[in-house]
Amino acid sequence: MHETDPLAALNKMRRIATGLLALMAVVFVTARIYEGVHPAVGFVRSFAEAALVGALADWFAVTALFRHPLGLPIPHTAIIQRNKDRIGASVANFLEHNFMTREVVAGEFARIDFAGAAARWLAHDDNSKAVGRQLAAVVPALLRLVEDADINRFIHERLGSLMRQVRFAPMLAEVLSLLVADRRHQELFDHLLVMVANALEQNQAFIRQKIHDNSPRWMPRAFDDRFFERLLAGLSSVLEEMKHDDSEWRARFQVAVEELIADLRTSDDYEAKIAALLSSGLQHPVFSTYIDNVWQEVRSRLLADVASPESRIAARLAQAVHGLGAALEGDVLVRDKLNLWLREFATETIVRRRGAIAELVERVIAQWDGETVAQKFELHVGKDLQYIRINGTVVGGLVGVLLHLVSLAL
């Protein structure tokens, strides 16, 4: 057993103290036998006699704390075993009112730089990489959680309930109102005009052929071409007119958008139509199949990445963690605010629950049997108590020598 083991240290000191007691007993007997040989032997006998008495008294006192000396049920012995519940209550009360007060806890936490320590630790490459790997390792567990049948059913039920509670029409009305306030709807109108003009320009041959295909067979091709040119010119003229800020078309578009916003805000029909459209779209087999295919592809890529030694997800997470640590280390103001918050949170948490912590200590000690409590206490303080036995032996011997001198003087 290792020398620093508490039980080994206790047994070692116990052997020393007991060996010293036995040595004094041997010295006393020997000195008592040869006391008449020389006057100095009397001093040895007196020392050994008093030391033996002191050693025995201290052995009894130390042993009586934890058990009955020699197994004899002597009154007021095995003190810890017999009073374990009262001792547990006293220890809990002592901890609660001396160690877990707001002043003590706050004073201890005030010396700790939580944010700074975390920042320096995270800014270290090895640590940030380790955190990144640990975070990436959570991905498979999260995927299993999402794919669990009960969890999946719960999510779908909650989302369905949430979707039924949300009114999408007023929400869409607010979005359109923001667009109108910034004249973004006019930019959209201009963009649509450009799209239509480009479509006409790029599909002239197709339109010309469609006109020819749908005209009577007896109609000369020249008439179809002239009709196409006039149609194209008319459409181009209308599009050019629509581009003007004061055009009637733009004014009609403005009125239509404002009426749509008003209807979205007040009409239940629009809300019902939007809800029905969303519901039918989300429940459509094509949409479900598409979402499932996308999910399976994303899932397989995520699992393959986190399983790879060169995981990009882990690398990105490590980079983000490293950047967070470096940024926090360089921002004193943020560190101070985080430290203040952490210290207040930790202090408040401990102080509020100090009664529960004390009750836990008392409850655990009450659950132990008396012998277990005595063993635990002896394991932690028994080594120091053995020094009392050694000191008692030495001090007792010195007192014995002093008393022998006094007796000779008288």
Task: Provide key terms for this protein.
410 residues, 0% strand, mainly alpha, rod-shaped
Short description, anyone?
The protein is mainly α. It has helices at 6-33, 40-66, 79-82, 84-98, 102-110, 114-123, 125-147, 149-165, 168-181, 184-202, 204-214, 221-242, 248-266, 268-283, 285-307, 312-330, 332-352, 354-367, 370-409. It is rod-shaped, with a radius of gyration of 46 Å.
Mean pLDDT across all amino acids: 84
What is the CA-atom radius of gyration, in angstroms? 46 Å
Instruction: Summarize the main sheet.
Output: none
Q: Which range best describes the helical content: under 10%, 10-25%, 25-40%, 40-55%, 55-70% or over 70%?
A: over 70%
What global shape is seen?
rod-shaped
The ordered string of helix (H) and strand (E) elements is: HHHHHHHHHHHHHHHHHHH
- Annotation, overall tally of beta strands: 0
How many separate domains? 2
Low-confidence stretches: none
For the termini, the CA-CA separation is: 54 Å
Percentage of β-strand residues: under 5%
Category by helix and strand content: mainly alpha
Q: Report the total helices.
A: 19
If you had to describe this structure to a student in words, what would you say it looks like?
This protein has 410 residues and is an all-alpha fold. The protein folds into two domains: 6-82 and 368-409, no CATH class; 114-330, no CATH class. The chain contains 19 helices and no strands. The protein has helices at 6-33, 40-66, 79-82, 84-98, 102-110, 114-123, 125-147, 149-165, 168-181, 184-202, 204-214, 221-242, 248-266, 268-283, 285-307, 312-330, 332-352, 354-367, 370-409. Helix 10 (184-202) runs antiparallel to helix 12. The longest helix is centred in the C-terminal third of the chain and has 40 residues, at 370-409. The model has no long low-confidence stretch (mean pLDDT 84).
